[in-house]
Write a structure and sequence with these properties.
globular; 7-stranded parallel beta sheet; disordered C terminus; about 25% strand
Length: about 350
């Protein structure tokens, strides 16, 4: 199974590294949006010796013509409108597509026209398009849905993910308002520069769709996590009184009754002030269900794993745009992947 990776950042590199470790999968090429003068080798583009000899290109169509892949994993952006151009090229070339763009996890929620377009295009080309990731895609939606499977009735869902922003670079930290004053944080929220977590509406819509609920509205709040002591990472220093992260919450209403609450406080160096990371899901119903894990499932590692581990599920899926709730549950690929890659007509895919 030949796979191309779109993206040369931390996630693109992590996905490429994992693909190189999986028997039966070949890293066929790497695409980068940013020009890299003189670089034509994927090993140099993502810093992996194992990828040497694999093509790298800033021209996606040219890369596909050289690599002749069957699957593409997109790790270039978060927003659907930024991802659409690349996905159109990939689907038109006859590739199954797995994207970690957060808004692609359930695009019908906020971009129904784009979702219909992708579904129709993928259907015509007989390929499958999936958005996945640790969140949205797993912790605050798919895992929630799975846990409701033991309930006879669900009254309310509260899911919380507390995570550490320390491993992330400047782009992510800026989007969380890290390092700002509380007043500048509020101004950034108002201007749309401080976005907090991307994907709450998509996660809520995925949960609601699986349970048969119709959301009437979603309310979101972004509040600063203000440091009381100095915090420092390789990319930022946060003095006391400055913003160390963002507490982003969202509540989904069904007929004006609050049914789903998602809570996601993110901050750098939470342990300095005694905050333990982790994931927790509480379902009120019949019966009540509680699930908790400490520490958090690492975001970057988990997202790379899901993107790769979903390859067999996507290859075997019916054509069209799908969500994680539409496919069999993910599982780690621990052996030669070729025995899992049954084609849509039952043949083994080489």
């Amino acid at each position: 199974m030949k796979v191309v990776v779109l993206g040369t950042g931390r996630m693109g590199e992590g996905i490429a590294r994992l693909l190189l470790e999986k028997p039966g999968i070949a890293l066929a090429g790497v695409y980068g949006r940013r020009p890299r003068p003189g670089i034509t080798d994927a090993g140099d583009a993502v810093g992996l010796a194992g990828a040497r000899g694999t093509p790298f290109d800033n021209d996606l169509a040219a890369l596909l013509d050289r690599a002749r892949p069957q699957v593409a994993i997109q790790a270039t952006c978060s927003r659907l409108e930024d991802a659409m151009g690349e996905i159109r090229i990939l689907v038109d070339a006859g590739l199954d597509v797995i994207s970690i763009a957060e808004e692609l996890a359930y695009p019908a929620c906020r971009s129904p026209d784009a979702a219909r377009e992708l579904d129709a295009l993928a259907g015509r080309r007989r390929v499958t398009v999936l958005g996945t990731g640790i969140n949205p895609g797993f912790v605050l939606d798919l895992l929630v849905i799975a846990l409701t499977g033991v309930c006879q009735r669900v009254d309310r869902i509260t899911a919380t993910r507390v995570n550490d922003l320390s491993p992330y670079g400047p782009t992510v930290l800026e989007s969380q308002g890290v390092g700002l004053s509380p007043d500048a944080f509020a101004a950034g929220v108002a201007a749309g520069a401080v976005v907090g977590h991307r994907g709450f509406p998509e996660s809520m819509a995925m949960i609601a769709g699986a349970l048969g609920w119709r959301l009437s509205r979603i309310e979101q709040r972004r509040e600063p996590v203000v440091a009381r002591v100095r915090r420092e990472t390789p990319f930022v220093t946060v003095d006391p009184g400055r913003v160390a992260g963002c507490r982003h919450t969202a509540v989904g209403y069904v007929e004006d009754v609050p049914r789903i609450e998602l809570v996601h406080p993110q901050q750098v160096c939470p342990e300095i002030e005694g905050v333990e990371t982790g994931d927790e899901i509480a379902i009120a119903g019949e019966p009540d269900v509680r699930f908790a894990g400490r520490p958090e499932i690492p975001g970057g590692t988990g997202t790379a794993a899901l993107a790769v581990n979903m390859i067999p599920r996507v290859v075997a899926a019916a054509p069209g745009l799908v969500s994680m709730a539409d496919l069999p549950v993910p599982a780690a690929i621990m052996g030669d992947v070729r025995h899992l890659l049954a084609g849509r007509r039952g043949e083994v895919v080489a």
